[in-house]
Fold this sequence. Notes:
The protein is α/β, with parallel strands linked by helices.
Amino acid sequence: xxxxxxxxxxxxxxxxxxxxxxxxxxxxxxxxxxxxxxxxxxxxxxxxxxxxxxxxxxxxxxxxxxxxxxxxxxxxxxxxxxxxxxxxxxxxxxxxxxxxxxxxxxxxxxxxxxxxxxxxxxxxxxxxxxxxxxxxxxxxxxxxxxxxxxxxxxxxxxxxxxxxxxxxxxxxxxxxxxxxxxxxxxxxxxxxxxxxxxxxxxxxxxxxxxxxxxxxxxxxxxxxxxxxxxxxxxxxxxxxxxxxxxxxxxxxxxxxxxxxxxxxxxxxxxxxxxxxxxxxxxxxxxxxxxxxxxxxxxxxxxxxxxxxxxxxxxxxxxxxxxxxxxxxxxxxxxxxxxxxxxxxxxxxxxxxxxxxxxxxxxxxxxxxxxxxxxxxxxxxxxxxxxxxxxxxxxxxxxxxxxxxx
Length: 405
């Protein structure tokens, strides 16, 4: 069978593949702990449920405008004003099938073949693949000092005449790092001076810990959205724990939104009106649900840090946001794919190899589940890797003895 070369070169999503492997193991009755999946365990906010249910019971579930229903766009405009101190028009907003489609539509709309996008490692696994799908070239900038925070000079050095955008994700998936405000300020000024886009993936922007804040890029420009090179991507998946509704949005100059609307119209026609109603309900409802999710995740983060203290050989930069941590486990195995497979086989713990995020020798752990998942998952990983940990452990109802160290 002859297939598209471009499509054939796109990598499989490692997270979705691991989710499927974990599902099959659970179906066989194995006591799998999933520290790979990136979604909070909360129930859908009640206002989102009521709003989507009302849309369903009305029976009026038809096509919507390709750029989103006006009432949801109005809620997004208010959200942008409250959280970014920036007033935008309906023509500056487009609703998409999740923030992932937001990113695809942005790059599809701004890239010509071989145009470059600066991607900062560690990065979300889909960034390079989406850029390649849009005929662009991802240019990876990796911090060389053992941290997860890039130096502005390294980013600046990577920019060429082909650079069309720099993508920034802070708080960062997979590391949990929050980029310093000074770095964001420099990037805004640099991009506006060079006439390139700064694409801000803000999907975790409210999930921060210890009263820390992810500084929004809009804070560092006096330009109106129409004249700025800042593009903001957001959605309800992470902050509201509504991953399955697939609703994201973009705030950008209206000419870009116009082109993105044409792309959406030809690709998906738009977002389900039921999902849009749910997103509108979440944005307009009580916002205490966001703080409840944040507090639960911060508590899980604190438990994870406590458990990691006794993990000899592991190095961890404490995450300041998201629900991910990225320990450096090169002391045990520099090949993160082998390491994740080993942990799944021996300890029945799902992790994601750091190689997928541009950070070999690390693994990504998600602490978005329960405290029990975090404590037992870390205990199993320590048992499998750390020779100073107890030699025996119970996995489910089976007593396991370590015989490989």
